Amino acid sequence: MILENLPDMVALVREAVSQVPRGSVSTYGDIAAAFGDRAAARAVGEMLPGILGAPVHRIVYSDGSVGGHAGHGGDGNARAGLLRSEGLEVRGGRVVSFADARFRDFRVPPVLEGMRREQELIRAEVTESDSFGALQRVVGLDVSYEGDRAFAAAAVHEWDSGEPISERTAETRIGFPYIPGYLAYREVPALAPLISKEAGTLYLVDGHGTLHPRGAGAASHIGVLFGVPAAGAAKSLLAGKVLDPEAERSQVVLEGRGSGIMLRQGRNRTFVSVGSGISLDTAAEVCSGLLDRGIPSPLRRAHELANRVRREAVAEGKA
DNA sequence: GCGACAG
DNA sequence: ATCTTGTCGC
Ligand SMILES: [Mg+2]
Description:
Strand content: 15-25%
Helix content: 25-40%
Number of helices: 10
Strand order of the largest sheet: 7-6-5-8-9-13-12-11-10
Largest sheet: 9 strands, mixed
Bound molecules: magnesium ion
Shape: elongated
Number of strands: 15
Radius of gyration: 22 Å
Distance between the termini: 38 Å
CATH class of the largest domain: Alpha Beta
């Protein structure tokens, strides 16, 4: 399906960096833009330190400054020296005539553009009315990480009582970075082994559903791709505006549409939105009914479980 | 122009 | 998300 055969972003970033010629420079944001979305700038920056055999010293900040932090194969002075040896003038920690030296001709696949198209297709298949009979259980889903190992957890709660019923975990290798707006490509493959179609079951995902720039966050991917009722419950906002920030419960508006509900207990907030196969009202009622210190209890439990199995796995590896 | 940016 | 110890507060 859509979330398989994801692009190897490390390899693609390495390829992009390799295309910057001697005497030229580029920026995190320009490389991200070459892949189709500047929102990936930070992700590019995080991958750079691990990239070998490519001229990462030619990647500078968007203002032309050379910087001095790790990840560029040395400190700022070393990088300035390398750039000078390639014919560039560096003064006061900045590349002189940065605009002229800025490389603009990347030939890499715009993979993020394709993913946005996929998200638009997902959005078109989202349904926003309750697609189940009597709600019996709510399954919280969350993921914890250690390097490229992902630890996914599902915590099943009985809706009537709110009590925990069971739990499951699954470990997978992660192959895609976190990029704002593309969380589904990182987390949904890890959660997939824990999802099955069962009557009366709602999946509660740690993240957004339709409260998303393309109206299709991770919760919508789960709802649509697996054909299960799903809702998103995130701890912070990715897009949209809270109408009444001080209220215990408020509508969240995105592009003129009431796409989300903010629930709060004290300073802990949860932003609820439709994944698919459920109405926003029902999703908010379920989250509200299971709210424990500002977080729906199935999600709190899934979060704790994912962290626990990660720590156990790491401890096991050291033993 | 600056800030914001799920996990 | 992860890196981390003690510490402040309800
Ligand atoms: Mg999470």
